[in-house]
Structures are given as C-alpha cells and as structure tokens.
Amino acid sequence: MSIRKIRTNLLSALLGVLLTVSGTALYVGASGSSAPHETWLDSWSAAQISAGDVLGPNWSAAGFAGHTIRQTVRPTLAGDSVRITLSNLFGDRPLPIAAATIAHATDGAAVRSGTVRPLSFGGAPGAVIPQGAELTSDATDYPVNARQSLTVTLYLSRPTGPATFHYLANTTTYRAIGDHSADVDGGAFTEFSNSWYYLAGVEVSGIPNRDGVVVFGDSLTDGAGAWPDMDNRYPDALADRLAVAGRPRAVLNAGIGGNRIVSDSAYVGQRAATRFRRDVLDKEGVGTVILLSGINDIGASELHEPWMRPNPEVTAGQLIAEYRQLIRMARAGGLQIIGGTLLPFQGAPYYSERGERVRDAVNTWIRGSGEFDAVVDFERALADPADPDALAARFDSGDQLHPGPAGYSAMADAAVAVLLGAAD
User: Fold this and answer.
1) In angstroms, rounded to a whole number, what is the distance separating the alpha carbons of residues 146 and 246?
2) How far apart are the first and last CA of the chain?
3) What residues have CB less than 8 Å from 30, skipping those under 6 apart?
4) Which residue ranges does the record assign to the SGNH hydrolase-type esterase domain (predicted)?
C-alpha cells in the first residue's frame, strides 16, 4: 500500500484547497515541508491497524459522527514547538477533522486551565485527510515536557467511517457528543475506550540528532499486562531509565498486540517487514531499533480464533529469514538494530513442545549469530531460574505469556544496560 504523509505549512496552505464541513474551513492536504530552520524529532508514536472489534470492545468499526474524542499520550522528548500526525491509513473514505486542540492533562478527561491550544492544518482549523494517507499539523509554539501527559482532542463533526486506530492503548480515551474540543472540564466526556484513534505521532522541535530509539514488536512491547493509565509498559520504563541515567532519548513504542513477523493479519496489523518503514525508518531523529517479535508466529498455529488467522506452523528458519530482512532494512536506513530474545511462554494458551523447540532455536541464533548490532537477553532476565521455559512468577502478569509491571521494569533494566553500553 502506498502511503502519503502530508506536511502542512504556510506555503501548502496557500496551495491547498479549502472546503467547508459543518461551517468549518478545512484543509485538504497539498504536499509541503517544514520551514528550513525547523528540526523535528518524534517524541511519541503509536502503530496503526485497521478497524475491528474482534479483539475487544472499541469504537473503530462504527467510527464517529458528531463526536469529540480526547486522547492522552506521554511524549518522551521535550520541545518548545509541537505538531501531531493523524492517520487515515486504513480508512475507507476521506477523513474530515473539524477541529483539533492540544492541552496538558490533569485527571480523567479534564485538562489544565490555560493550556488548551488549537491546532491548525495549512492555516485552517480543520482538515480532510485523504484515504490511505497521514497528515501532520502545522507547527505550534507550545511547551512539551518529556514524560508528562499531553492530551490531543479531535472534533469529528461528520461520519468518519471505520477508524484507523491503535487497539491496546492501555490509556483511557474519552468521548463526548458535540464539539467539546476546547473544554477544560471533562464533564461532557461520558464514554470511555482503551484505544487510540487516528493519532499516530507527536513531534517536537529540537537540536538535530539520531539518539531516538524505536521499540518494535508485539504485545510484549505494546504493554499487555501493564496497568491502565499508569504508563508502566517496558518502553515507558526504558525512557525513565535513560532519563535517570542522564541520557534522555526519545523512546517510541511501535508494538502491536498480536502482531507477527511472518504473516499479515486483518485484525492485528501488517507483518513486521511491511510496516517497518512506516513505524521505524520514517521516524525523525531515530538511530536505534530494538526488535522483540516472533512468539505470536510460533504460537498461532495452536489457536483457532479468527483474529489469529492465517496461522500456519512457522519454523525457526522462516523467522530467522524475516529477522535478516529487518536487519538489512535497518542498516540500509542507517539504524543500529538490537535483537531481543523471545520470552519464556510455558503455560500460555498457545504453548506447545514444538513451539518451545522453535523458540529455543531462534534464541540460540539471536544470541550467537552476531548478525544484530547487540542483543538484549530478555529471556534470561525474566525466566524462572528453577524452570527456564517459564516466566518467573514475580514477573508474570498471570497468563504465563505477558509480564506485569515488575516484568516490564526488568525488561527495561536489561535494555538500558545494552543501550548505554553500546553508546559508550
């Protein structure tokens, strides 16, 4: 699929087309770029999938019409200017955005008084994002603090159709009827979801660098087993560790729950190589990617739920071939790529002895091949010393597959040691 990422600025506003949706001037993106003196760095991101509710209740299939949605994110890099990227990558029609604002979060759907700022697109308060495209807002002078919550509020006045979204946000999104994009009080927001909709990225202005890290993978990266609204996924903890060590960097979470290396899925996203450019290589200010993925490929053949299809048996050789492709892609993009060993999964719903043999073979290759620039041994960091094929109980969320917050903290400890060692 061809992806158009549209940047807006004053010039593109002059070259773009304005139309009206419910009385609001909207910008239909023309190609543009940032002013030459601006340097943009990705500070937060979420990998996108197509609409569907097979994984659990959410609003993506129905989309929105006359709704305001307020979403909370946690940027990992500070800056004095900000812009956001909205995605209509998997929509079935152009996406009208009637209004968008940004604000500093407080409790629930409320935002801090005096911090609400409207966003613009080519100088207009709204935009129409073409089907299959992403759109980046104009730059806005607005202070963004690293690792402090920010809200992005969108008013969607007209029917959107199925929404491009990120299912496992582990962060509450709020919905209201009518235009409440400028509200400080959260009282109008009476509906709740655990997903992000359309919001693909937050960038901040900064000094040019390639210090950023993309953490790429499946639900172990996405944060299944973390606590809602607590920002204790392993990439969150990694950003915290780097800041405490005096080496702050952008840490971008490119995990998708259920995602796989070998197979595309209608429900859990495009396979790793298909989405690698969009979710890793196209990010601004990134120099390193940490790869942890493959356990879903190994286990999928043991399950028969629709969201796991296609679910063929996968060999270690197939996974290694896909890892090598990702290594080549990262190197061609000038990135360092760090391989993560696959975590123990004995007792998980899709565990099998065959799958365990594949996991062992893959981990042996990750550790010993020398093909990655470095290796984070997540398996050894989280395994039960008395039963190395299982997660240690203190790290297990309870399903024998996903770590809980203590496990994600241990993963961050293992990753930061490798990152700082590689940088020294």
Assistant:
1) 13
2) 39
3) 6, 12, 15, 16, 17, 122
4) 215-409
Buried b vs exposed e over 176-199: b needs ≥16 C-beta within 10 Å?
beebbbebeebebbeeebbbbbbb
Q: What is the largest CA-CA distance in the chain?
A: 67
DSSP, collapsed to helix, strand or coil, labels residue 218 as coil
Cβ 166 vs Cβ 45: under 8 Å: no
Structure tokens belonging to residue 83 = 């812009």
Instruction: Say whether 72 sits in a helix, a strand or coil.
Output: strand
Please report the pLDDT score of residue 142 as a whole number: 97
pTM of the full structure: 0.93
3-state secondary structure 324-366: HHHHHHHHHCCCEEEEECCCCCCCCCCCCHHHHHHHHHHHHHH
Q: Is residue 127 left, alpha or beta, with left meaning phi > 0 and alpha meaning psi from -120 to 50?
A: beta
Q: Give residue-wise pLDDT tens across range 20-69.
A: 444 444 555 433 334 445 599 999 999 999 999 988 999 999 999 999 99
Question: Which amino acid type is present at position 338?
Answer: I
Structure confidence at residue 25 (pLDDT): 44
pLDDT band (50, 70, 90) for residue 394:
very high
CB-based contact 259:296 (threshold 8 Å): yes
What is the distance, to the nearest Å, from the Cα of residue 126 to the centroid of all Cα atoms in its chain? 24
- Read off the pLDDT of each residue in 274-287 and give the average, rounded to a whole number: 98
* Ordered domains of the chain (ranges, CATH): 4-202 (no CATH), 209-423 (3.40.50.1110)
pLDDT score recorded for residue 6: 77
The C-alpha atoms of residue 35 and residue 201 are separated, in whole angstroms, by 19
Q: How many helices (H) and strands (E) does the chain have?
A: 9, 25
Whole-number Å distance between alpha carbons of 392 and 339: 21
DSSP state of 124: B
Q: Which residues pair with 246 in a beta bridge?
A: none
